[in-house]
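Thread: quick sanity check before group meeting

JM: Hey all, I'm pulling together slides for Thursday and realized we never actually wrote out the predicted structure for the chain we discussed last week. Dropping the sequence here so it's in one place. If anyone has concerns about the input, flag it before I start.
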Amino acid sequence: MSEHTNSPLTPDTQAMFDCLIQAVSKTLERKRRLGQYSVQWNGDAPFAIGDDAPEYLRVDKQMEVVQK
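JM (edit): ok, ran it. Output follows.
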């Protein structure tokens, strides 16, 4: 694996990163307004947010698994 460094990003890289963050934010907001679920990652496992999310990916089900 490669070692992560905290070196500052170049202006071009920062601009690309900012653009990606903005695109993802807009997409998640659009899905929320349309009533669609979104799948996200918490570092250990995927989880879904939204009323129509699959039962096995719902956040409340993930919390039950963590608490057991």
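AS: nice. The first strand starts at residue 38 and ends at 41. The CA atoms of residues 5 and 48 lie 31 Å apart.
JM: adding both to the slides.
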